[in-house]
Amino acid sequence: MLLGNKISDGLKINIILDHEEHLNQGLSKAESIRRICREWLLTNDEAAAIIAQDEAEYNEDKGEIA
C-alpha cells in the first residue's frame, strides 16, 4: 500500500491519465476509481484523493484573461 505523501508525482500523473482514459471509455468516476485501485494496488481513499487533488487544481480559479 502506498501512502499519500509517498506516492511520486510521476505515479500520480499516470494514475490521472488512466482515470481520464477510463472516463473517455465511458466508465463512471466510481468504476474508474475501482479499476485504478486494482491496477495500481491503491486503497479507494488513496485513489480518490489523487483524483480529487487533480480536479481541485483543474477547477482552481486561474484569474481573468486580460
Task: Briefly characterize the structure.
The relative contact order is 0.17.
Features:
single chain, 66 residues, mainly alpha, 3 helices, 0% strand
Rg estimate, integer Å: 13 Å
Percent of residues in helices comes to 55-70%
Number of strands: 0
Mean of all residue-level pLDDT scores: 88
How many helical elements?
3
Q: Are there runs of 5+ residues with pLDDT below 50, and where?
A: none
- How far apart the termini lie comes to 46 Å
**General form:** globular
Roughly what fraction of the amino acids lie in strands?
Answer: under 5%
Provide an overview of this structure.
The protein has 3 helices and no strands. The protein is an all-alpha fold and 66 residues long. It has a domain at 22-55. The longest helix is centred in the first third of the chain and has 16 residues, at 9-24. The protein is globular. The model has no long low-confidence stretch (mean pLDDT 88).
Itemize the secondary structure elements and their pairings.
Blueprint: H1 9-24, H2 29-40, H3 44-59
Helix pairs in contact: 1-2, 1-3, 2-3
